[in-house]
Amino acid sequence: MIEARIHGVEFIAVNTDAQALHNSNAPIRIHVGKSLTRGLGAGMNPEVGRQAAIDTKEEIMTPLKGADMVFLTCGLGGGTGTGAAPVIADLAREAGALTVGVVTKPFSFEGAQRSRIAEDGWHALREKVDALITIPNDRLLSVIDRKKLTMC
């Protein structure tokens, strides 16, 4: 979507993992929790992701000011997305934006702990967004088997 250069849309990447952030194509990149994680990610700990976003709220809030609508995407079940997404959603709503979450839930083979983290994060995010679209990763496997994907 970034390569499509959609008019009027700003893409912002937020991450605790410095290398993943560096590899992002998003023109706006916000490294959260620099001192907290030393650039290594949140280690599957949503509390670390949450605190990282809180510690960087002013930097996150800057590009959100004036936004009419914010689509917040993340994979649930880890630390950064699960913990930071509700904080970012709250900031987006505070800025007056209609806020839509688009999240994935882990594959079942990723285990019970990751699923529990994802479920807790889903409930926390649900309270902070105007709408929440949830895509179970297991469902993606059945779609991929059809060998035809359509992007619109």
TrEMBL record:
The protein's name in its UniProt record: Cell division protein FtsZ
Localization in the cell: Cytoplasm
GO biological-process terms attached to the record: division septum assembly
Family under the similarity heading: Belongs to the FtsZ family.
Annotated coiled-coil segments of the chain: none
UniProt xrefs under InterPro entries: Cell_div_FtsZ_CS, FtsZ/CetZ, Tubulin/FtsZ_GTPase_sf, Tubulin_FtsZ_GTPase
Purpose of the protein: Essential cell division protein that forms a contractile ring structure (Z ring) at the future cell division site. The regulation of the ring assembly controls the timing and the location of cell division. One of the functions of the FtsZ ring is to recruit other cell division proteins to the septum to produce a new cell wall between the dividing cells. Binds GTP and shows GTPase activity.
GO cellular component, one term: cytoplasm
Summary of subunit composition and partner proteins: Homodimer. Polymerizes to form a dynamic ring structure in a strictly GTP-dependent manner.
Alphabetized UniProt keyword annotations: Cell cycle, Cell division, GTP-binding, Nucleotide-binding, Septation
Organism domain of life: Bacteria
